[in-house]
Design a protein that fits this description.
Layout: E1 14-16, H1 27-36, E2 41-45, H2 50-62, E3 66-72, H3 78-83, H4 113-127, E4 132-136, H5 148-158, H6 171-198, E5 203-208, H7 221-225, E6 231-236, H8 250-262, E7 267-272, H9 285-297, E8 301-305, H10 310-322, E9 331-332, E10 336-340, H11 342-347, H12 373-386, E11 392-395, E12 409-412, H13 420-431, E13 435-439, H14 458-461, E14 463-470, E15 477-480, E16 494-496, E17 501-506, E18 510-516, E19 529-540, E20 543-548, H15 552-559, H16 562-573, E21 581-584, E22 590-597, E23 600-607, E24 622-630, E25 638-640, E26 645-646, E27 649-651, E28 655-663, E29 666-671
Parallel strand pairs: 1-2, 1-8, 2-3, 3-4, 4-5, 5-6, 6-7, 7-8, 10-11, 10-12, 12-13, 13-20
Antiparallel strand pairs: 9-22, 14-17, 15-16, 15-18, 18-19, 19-20, 21-24, 22-23, 23-29, 24-28, 25-26, 25-29, 27-28
Helix pairs in contact: 4-6, 8-9, 9-10, 12-15, 12-16, 15-16
The chain binds zinc ion (ZN).
């Protein structure tokens, strides 16, 4: 049982700012406004007037409204560097990191800045009955830090000088990356200690990493989860760039990642009400509603920074508050785990999207077409979502231990970097009957990005690496060997080849699809079959390994071909119990998540069906969505919470069926 004081383990709805900012002066009134919008907690900058703040906290606590002080530990005004030049992060050439958000400087957590920050935290904790402190940052920036304190600390730990920036493949570079991760985690851990020394009831957490390579900012969520009370990341900060390039499921995906990496910690998705890069231009109401819906549909708590669109956010918060029971202590009931490999993102390469923690215009040299993990992950994510298969995100740590029994299928989307330990546990999973779907270069590199001679999963794939990458294919084809359940729903015999593939020699594996030879141009007849399979299947123990030598996932992300989506989703559905739901009349962009609480099954429907462009202005409702859920053969009641109606249902020995009359942008169905 949680202690009743552990308020942060109950559903939280954070607000940052207020629509009445500055207009109302009375503390009780300010709190009342925030509560009336459905929020029950906030991040707030420390007010200058101490007496006001004491009164404010008193009023907040009367209505169980929790107040966390926002403390920026990652970017300061240029004057700060003039007062404390040796506290600022340095690049290898000795220059300061001074271009954050255009002009700010970044402090180094290994410098005496550390003690200064601890003192600030202690002062806040000592003087005020705050519920906690939120640290914005801390983090390192690309090309940093080579300050004298980092140099000394590194030398002490590894008896070596800091390596040159981005000396990939060198042991010291891997150590430097670990050192940066550890330095941030150690700083957080000490901040927590300092706060709790003076205010044992206060909590602390920081802005952690989302679905992007974590090395540039040195924030490793697994390390950070051990020394904070909540795990939060900016899953709802959009757009920065062309809106169509930002996954509409960004908030939900980040929530899935944090749920795994928090390992039991409650999680928070930060949603900014502004359409970035403009910090004063609000997101559309549809975008706001969907970001919040996708956050809670995937088990996280929303944090919302106020813009002029507060009405849409408040409508969501009030709904969640009213139905808090269905959001408290639920767990995912998905049976498929899609792996986000930080090791692969760090050491193999992945695209770095624009986020708030990176200075503009920065080129990250690892992002190349060939070595792109994030496109593979995004492509598989999109295919699963559009195929209505509920799934979780797992990470490197999840597969370096016994994989939980609830999973039927593990997907490794070009998880190129795998440790021997990961290989061992994935093999064990298949031996016990699990299915493993792996694409392209999965397991061809060790966890530090050093290439192996063969796939570490070679025996499991039932094939060997034939020493080369195939492609890039432009107008080429693969031939499908029918019939096979993997090819269900595909009428064509030849379909476009994915852009890239990896050459294999099969040993035991069965080939389901074969690359045709590369054509010298367009408008030619089909080329002869090559000797290279594009998809192989191999029995292993009680289970199965499906290896897509063709990079169908990253190609799907680019081209969105129906047949590629079917190959990806069929590879998962090959395991009979992997997907517990089937739908009729549902658009592909209706996301389904499965969560449970005791005997209650909670199905979330997030409708991303817009008008073919982002930002979403209007959402087209889905009507008469017929739902069949397998593995449930009795129920007392089926209720649609948003529509607020009881649904008629039928049960048979294997499933329960019902129809949801209308899903505008969000619906929650509880089966009790
Ligand atoms: Zn430093």
């Amino acid at each position: 049982m949680d202690s009743p004081n552990e308020w942060w383990k109950k559903p939280i709805r954070f607000i940052s700012g207020s629509p009445e900012e500055g207009k109302i002066k009375d503390p009780a009134e300010i709190i009342k406004v925030k509560r009336s919008l459905g929020f029950n907690a906030e991040h707030i900058s420390l007010p200058e007037d101490a007496d006001f703040f004491k009164k404010y906290l008193e009023e907040a606590h009367k209505v169980n409204f929790r107040v966390l002080v926002y403390f920026n530990v990652h970017a300061y005004q240029p004057e700060f560097s003039r007062e404390h030049p040796d506290w600022i992060q340095r690049r290898q050439d000795g220059s300061m990191v001074d271009d954050l958000y255009g002009f700010r400087v970044g402090p180094c957590v290994n410098s005496p800045y550390r003690e200064w920050a601890f003192n600030q935290i202690k002062k806040i904790g000592e003087n005020f009955e705050v519920d906690g402190i939120f640290l914005d940052g801390p983090c390192y920036y690309p090309r940093a830090c080579y300050c004298k304190y980092c140099r000394e600390k590194f030398k002490e730990r590894f008896n070596a000088d800091l390596p040159s920036w981005e000396s990939w493949g060198e042991t010291l570079w891997a150590k430097f990356l670990e050192f940066r991760y550890d330095s941030i985690a150690e700083f957080l851990s000490d901040c927590k200690k300092k706060l709790q020394e003076v205010n044992p009831n206060a909590i602390i957490y920081m802005n952690s990493s989302g679905l992007w390579a974590s090395w540039p900012n040195a924030r490793d969520n697994r390390r950070l989860s051990k020394c904070q009370h909540l795990l939060g990341a900016e899953g709802g900060f959009i757009f920065y760039t062309r809106p169509s390039e930002v996954p509409y499921w960004k908030a939900g995906a980040t929530a899935k990642l944090l749920e795994t990496q928090g390992d039991g910690l409650p999680t928070v998705i930060f949603i900014a009400g502004d359409h970035k890069p403009w910090d004063k231009y609000p997101l559309t109401e549809s975008e706001v509603r969907l970001l919040i819906a996708d956050t809670v549909a995937n088990g996280a708590n929303p944090w919302y920074s106020v813009q002029k669109n507060i009405g849409a956010a408040a409508e969501m918060m009030k709904f969640i508050e009213e139905h808090e029971y269905y959001y408290e202590k639920t767990t995912s009931a998905a049976k498929v785990g899609l792996v986000w490999s930080s090791k692969t993102a760090d050491f193999y390469g992945s695209e770095i999207p624009e986020i708030d923690f990176l200075p503009p215009g920065l080129k990250i040299s690892r992002a190349e077409m060939l070595r792109n993990f994030s496109d593979a992950f995004y492509g598989f994510y999109e295919a699963l979502l559009r195929s209505h298969i509920p799934f979780d995100i797992l990470d490197d740590v999840s597969i370096e231990g016994v994989i939980p029994e609830k999973y039927e299928v593990i997907v490794l989307p070009n998880v190129a970097c795998m440790s021997d330990k990961g290989v061992k546990y994935v093999a064990g999973f298949a031996e016990r009957g699990g299915h493993v779907v792996a694409t392209f270069e999965t397991s061809l590199y060790n966890e530090y990005g050093i290439r192996r001679n063969d796939f570490a999963l070679s025996e499991h794939f039932g094939s060997k690496f034939a020493g080369k990458i195939l492609g890039p294919y432009q107008w080429d084809y693969i031939y499908l060997r029918k019939p096979h359940p993997l090819l269900e729903g595909i009428t064509l015999d030849d379909i476009p080849a994915p852009t890239l593939g990896i050459a294999l020699h099969t040993v035991n594996a069965e080939s389901i699809a074969i690359f045709r030879e590369k054509a010298p141009g367009r408008y030619l007849s089909l080329q002869p079959l090559s000797k290279h399979p594009a998809i192989t299947v191999n029995k292993y123990g009680e289970g199965l390994f499906i290896h897509m030598a063709g990079a169908f996932d990253s190609s799907y992300w680019t081209h969105k071909l129906r047949e590629h989506r079917l190959l990806l989703s069929n590879s998962v559905r090959l395991k009979r119990d992997a997907c517990p739901i089937s739908l009729e009349n549902a658009p592909q962009t209706l996301e389904i998540t499965f969560r449970k609480k005791g005997d209650c099954l909670i199905i979330h429907f997030v409708n991303f069906t817009g008008e073919m462009s982002r930002p979403f202005e209007n959402i087209l409702p889905a009507t008469n969505v017929k739902v069949e859920v397998y593995g449930v053969n009795s129920a007392k009641e089926v209720r649609a919470l948003w529509s607020n109606e009881k649904l008629k249902f039928t049960v048979n020995e294997k499933s329960i069926s019902f129809t949801v009359p209308k899903i505008s942008f969000y619906e929650v169905v509880s089966i009790e």
